[in-house]
Amino acid sequence: MASSLVRPSGNRWIGGVCAGLARRFGMSANTMRLLFVISCVLPGPQFLIYIVLWVLMPSED
Description:
Number of strands: 0
Radius of gyration: 11 Å
C-alpha cells in the first residue's frame, strides 16, 4: 500500500513537494527532482503546479 501524499519533514530542499511525490510513488527523491528539472524545458505549468502542491500538500509534522 502506498503512503499518503504529504511533504516529509526531513528530506526537503525547497518545499518538499518532490520528496513527497517520490515517497508516494516509490521513487528516489533525487530522481523526482531530476524529472521535475527536465520537465521544465517542456512547455507547461510546471512551476504553477509545484506552487499549488506546496500550498495544498500537508506537512508530515
